[in-house]
Amino acid sequence: MTPQQYVQDKAAGSGSSFYYAFLFLPPPRRAAITAFYAFCREVDDVVDEASDRGVAAAKLQWWRQEVAQAWAGQPSHPVTQALLPLADDFGILAAHLLAVIEGCQTDLDQTRFLDYPALQRYCHLVAGVVGEVAANIFGRTEAATVQYAHQLGLALQLTNIIRDVGDDARRGRIYLPMSELKQFDVKAEELLRREAPWGYSERFDALMRFQVGRADAAYDAAMALLPEADRQAQKPGLMMAHIYRTLLREIEAQGFRVLHQRTSLTPVRKLWIAARTQLRGH
Asked: What is the pTM of this model?
């Protein structure tokens, strides 16, 4: 299997909404974003699939060494072998990849976030930097587009956190800020136990409405930051925004039942949203 086939299979097999936005890119840009996304999946899987923290920490350290070795001209993993030849053309730096690894290290080292600023710092690493790299690959011409990309990355990550409250609780993790749980009188133990009736309450609904409102505000802020000159090139990001905001509406319509189920959109619906964005241009 070639490195290119490896990253293609990794991206397609993830089932992520991002894959549908990649389909509309010209081949060189699609190859770059696919390889970069495959890298993000590889390091994220280290934490998500870990049964032993020490083993996971050692794997993340291996990836740090692999990035250094790759940018010295000697990649050994199929992901870095696919990514490195495209890095210079699309402004992908070793520092970008190391930031993503640092975000995954945060996942490994802590399972709670005291307040929203702490969560924002985490989102910067695992989503803002990813957004910046993606914007470069899509074709950024304006400096202000970097701010848009970081804001959109934040919005997408906040959506992931809302969707995955139950999945994260099963792993002993809570990404909703502790200060906000206290604000809405929701106990961490309620989320972690997930006992019938699944910890749902008016308090939990109010907490989730607050989270969704903040995510929507982040999308609005991102759209306001995107320069008109880059709007056409950044359509894959706009596709993601539309797909994820539709997901938010589904979560709302289902009454925030995120503790015992994971809301998702069908592949056909994701593709339809992406195609509609491609045709409309916004």
From this structure: 0.91
Whether 174 contacts 192, CB under 8 Å: yes
Give me the amino acid identity at 212: V
- Taking CA atoms, 215 is separated from 58, 206, 220, 244, 245, in Å, by 34, 14, 9, 10, 9
Residue 72 lies in a domain: yes
User: What domain range is 206 assigned to?
Assistant: 110-282
CB count within 10 Å of CB 265 equals 17
How many domains does the chain divide into? 2
Within 10 angstroms of residue 253's Cβ, the number of other Cβ atoms is 9
Query: Is the model's pLDDT at 218 over the cut of 70?
Result: yes
Nearest residue to 200 (alpha-carbon basis) of 247, 252, 162, 255: 255
Q: What is the pLDDT of residue 67?
A: 97
Domain assignment present for 98 = no
At residue 116, does pLDDT exceed 90?
yes
Q: Is residue 100 part of a domain?
A: no
CATH number assigned to the domain comprising residue 218:
1.10.600.10
Q: Please provide the average confidence, as pLDDT, over all residues in the chain.
A: 91
Is residue 273 a contact partner of residue 235, using CB atoms and an 8 Å limit? no
Q: Which of 136, 156, 152 is nearest to 230 (CA)?
A: 136
Helix (H, G, I), strand (E, B) or coil at 273: helix
Provide the token pair at 162: 């809302």
Closest CA to 124 of 156, 91, 92, 94: 156
| Same domain flag for 2 and 88 | yes
**C-alpha–C-alpha distance, residues 108 and 57, integer Å:** 8
Averaged pLDDT, 231-241: 91
Q: Are 99 and 122 in contact (CB under 8 A)?
A: no
